[in-house]
Sequence to fold (332 residues):
Amino acid sequence: MDKPVVSIVGADSVLGRELRDLIYSKKLKWAVEPFSSGDSVAGVPSKEKDEALEILTALDKDTITASSIVFLAGSPDSSRKAWKLQSKLKKKPLLIDLTHTLEDEPQARLVDKAPDTYDADDVYVAVQPAAAVLASFLRTIHSHAPVAKAVVTVYEPASERGERGVNELQQQTIGLLSFRAVPKELYDSQLTFTMLARYGSEAPISLADFELRIDRHLASLLAREEGIPMPSLRLVQAPVFHGYSFSVWVEFAKDTSVKALETALATDGVDVRGNDLEPPNNVGVAGQSGYAAGAIEADRNHPRAFWFWLAADNARVSADTGLAIASKKLEP
Fold:
């Protein structure tokens, strides 16, 4: 039996590399076709081989027709090009958008797991990774003790802005340590050694827009549950390259304890760090699926409220969501 062909548009991006490496590490029997977001052939490191992996760039009707699934992991332009090509085909491959480029289109379906049925005319938009982590966390603790209120601060890494965000943070750090001017093309502000509540006024993108996306996606996921209130949420741009951190305050409707909450959280996909261990951090969760939870403490000023500290690898969460969406489609 021939292997199903899976194309990754933007295989040279942060998301694309994570998705490709995850497919290889799971030893999935898929034929992976990588495509660059740009116009030139690129070489990117492969964990499976010593040599660079060639990235194909001829994304056209013929190459996309052969695919069972097309993952969108690159630039908005490359995602829209793939969607346009797919929409013209009679036999359409399944589109899974990890970039959220197409989330406002009428055909978009926001999902965090495999749907019950697939429709090739739809675009399956993977839920934003911070929203995915928070939804999973709130579901778990709510099943233990009903959540009355929650307040969340999300600390976002530069890699959520792709290679451009990572490169600018790196160049800013080198520039500051070398006493040189720092680039501010993306953030229009110094991110190195700084927490940003908003980007500069000349930034081409808005941190508030990304905050609203997390809010929308989380609200959509929680609307499918019963009784879980939508938390108040604030997004902060952190001066880190990879990995989300979350400070979460939760008020419960009934009494509980730190020990009971640690036990409730100890489910598949959650690394619970008890008070006898170091709290989780964004570096420690690199390459780890799910999320880590720790530094769970009672609020000394509120009898039924607790603080939580969470950490998750943003690229891995997105890649895992993409594979979860695709799972039923490619079952033998």
In short: The mean pLDDT is 89. DSSP finds eight helices and 14 strands in the chain. The domain at 5-126 is CATH 3.40.50.720 (Rossmann fold). The CA atoms of residues 3 and 195 lie 46 Å apart.
